[in-house]
Design goal:
This protein has a domain of 250 residues. It is built from 23 helices and no strands. Helix 1 runs antiparallel to helix 12. The protein is globular, with a radius of gyration of 24 Å. It is found in: Cell membrane. This is Polysaccharide biosynthesis protein. Its main location: membrane. It comes from Calidifontibacillus erzurumensis.
């Protein structure tokens, strides 16, 4: 495939992934209006264990298969890639069935561990029901991953991109439609509505698989032609082939699980800790849903944007490290870190400041009092999420990914040890602080390893970050002033309309000030690399 087609394919896949992520975030706003806080908590109780077992079932296969097939295709050995594809399909089918049986079987054991022995608001059988409903997706999704990886190995990104978007759209339509019918039309039980909502993952997988099968039959003739003309046949045994595949999947299977594992710690400890201080039952369910469902979706919006920009630099980091071009490597590492801080810091500070209007406009003013403080304290942790993702990717680029696994588990251990005592002392904020401390430890380890193996100096990055912090401080002052002035005329707690007005005006003021300072100082151009036309014009003015 030509370079231009490869770039085009990569852009298509990146765009599809971003669309899927955005859809996966915004559906929660109408979903909240249908099932509320308790429904959100019940949804999380099923989805967090499912996410972890799904990652274990797929084992990082899409990227690994893509790398394996691409490697042997480059050698003209299309036969070996096809062998892996057939063997991998059987492996993923078996893996999916195995983990489906595990999740389905342990659901009765998980339920009391999650919500405690006392059935306040949510019963054990309801948790078992939703966990078992979502477990069915494990049968299909792992097989989808290997088919996507196979197509990507041929530098064909379309099947993965289209199937991802179709899968997400089908899932969300079924989720919202089924929960609405049960709750608003039939006046049914909440756990039935949530059970159908999590079963939407299976519906989405069926549609996604259908798209992939369609692509397979459409391109089967061409793929078979390549197979016939295969130049050489590798002597790899099936065992050697699978071991090579797993070596590619490697440590980042675990790193991708960092946030779900932190959420799992909350899931197993939050209710017990809250019950121990006399605040269990419905209150604990509602607080948990704001923390790990609705609030989490909200704070992940800036994380996705920042990491998407930062991770684009990782392939170039790999190239520079391989060529021992440390001068260029240091510049790329610095830029990757600066991009994260430049995009995420103002977003999380801004979200913390407008947490009340954000909740009131996107969810409901009824939970502003309960959720405003949670979002205000949780939003800054998003910066840690982004930094951990990018620093772990840098470690992959310099072939030190094992340390990313060590750092992740070190932080997770700290989270596990601190979670219950901090929740007992500070309630929901304790869980947030335990997460923050855990990720801070992980990031510190990652940065230490980056410094050790690349001889990278952080002084320049720190100076840039201080300048960004000054601009963010100015932005914060402006946002606070706007909120104060608006409070004279309008109270965002009075209704969704008022919250939307306050949110839009305050965001516009804060973003406008930050962008103006960043562009006028040329900071945006230095960090983002003049990839946008308005930054190119600013550079010309500065040089003129």
């Amino acid at each position: 495939m030509s370079g231009s087609k490869l770039i085009k394919g990569t852009m298509i896949l990146t765009g599809a992934t971003l669309i899927s992520k955005i859809l996966g975030m915004i559906y929660v706003f109408p979903f909240y209006s249908i099932v509320g806080n308790i429904g959100g908590a019940l949804y999380s109780y099923a989805y967090i264990p499912y996410t972890i077992l799904l990652s274990m079932a797929t084992m990082g296969v899409p990227l690994a298969v893509s790398k394996f097939v691409s490697k042997y295709n480059a050698l003209g050995d299309y036969y070996t890639g096809r062998r892996l594809f057939k063997t991998g399909l059987l492996l993923m089918f078996g893996s999916g069935i195995f983990f489906f049986i595990i999740l389905y079987s342990i659901a009765p054991w998980l339920a009391p561990k999650i919500i405690g022995e006392n059935e306040y608001g949510i019963q054990h059988k309801e948790v078992v029901y939703v966990i078992r409903m979502v477990s069915t997706a494990l049968i299909i999704v792992p097989m989808m991953s290997i088919i996507r990886g196979f197509f990507q190995g041929y530098q064909s990104m379309g099947p993965t991109a289209v199937s991802q978007v179709v899968e997400q759209i089908a899932r969300i339509i079924f989720l919202l439609f089924s929960s609405y019918i049960v709750m608003k039309v039939l006046d049914g039980d909440l756990h039935v509505a949530v059970g159908l909502s999590v079963f939407a993952a299976t519906i989405g997988a069926i549609f996604g698989m259908g798209i992939l099968i369609w692509y397979w039959f459409k391109r089967k003739h061409h793929l078979n032609e390549l197979l016939v003309n295969s130049k050489q046949e590798s002597q790899l045994t099936t065992k050697e082939m699978l071991l090579e595949l797993l070596s590619y999947a490697g440590p980042f299977v675990f790193v991708s699980l960092a946030i779900p594992l932190y959420q799992l710690v909350d899931e197993f400890t939050f209710h017990r800790a809250m019950e121990s201080i006399g605040k269990g039952g419905d209150v604990a369910h509602e607080l948990f849903s704001i923390l790990n469902m609705y609030g989490h979706k909200l704070i992940m919006i800036p994380v996705s944007l920042a990491t998407a920009f930062g991770l684009t630099l990782v392939p170039t980091i790999t190239e520079s490290f391989t060529e021992n071009n440390f001068k260029q490597l240091h510049k790329q590492i610095s830029q990757a870190l600066q991009v994260v801080v430049f995009l995420t810091l103002p977003a999380v500070v801004g979200l913390a400041m407008v947490s009340g209007p954000a909740i009131g406009s996107l969810y409901s003013v009824n939970i502003v009092q309960m959720g405003e403080g949670i979002i205000r304290y949780y939003a800054p942790i998003a910066l840690f999420f982004a930094l951990f993702t990018v620093t772990s990717a840098i470690l992959q680029g310099i072939n030190q990914q094992r340390f990313a696994v060590y750092s992740m588990f070190s932080g997770l251990l700290i989270k596990t040890l601190l979670n219950i005592p901090l929740i007992q002392a500070f309630e929901t904020y304790g869980a947030i602080w335990a997460t923050g401390i855990g990720f801070f430890i992980s990031i510190a380890i990652n940065l230490f390893v980056i410094k050790k193996y690349t001889r990278f100096r952080f002084s320049y990055t720190i100076r840039r970050s201080l300048l960004i912090s000054i601009f963010v401080l100015v932005m914060a002052v402006v946002v606070q002033l706007v909120l104060w002035l608006l409070s004279i005329f309008i109270q965002y707690e009075d209704g969704r309309g008022q919250s939307i007005v306050v949110l839009i005006i305050s965001i516009a003021a804060g973003a406008g000030v930050y962008l103006y300072l960043s562009i006028k100082s040329n900071l945006a151009g230095f960090i983002l690399g003049y990839r946008f036309k308005f930054l190119q014009r600013q550079k010309q003015k500065a040089n003129g």
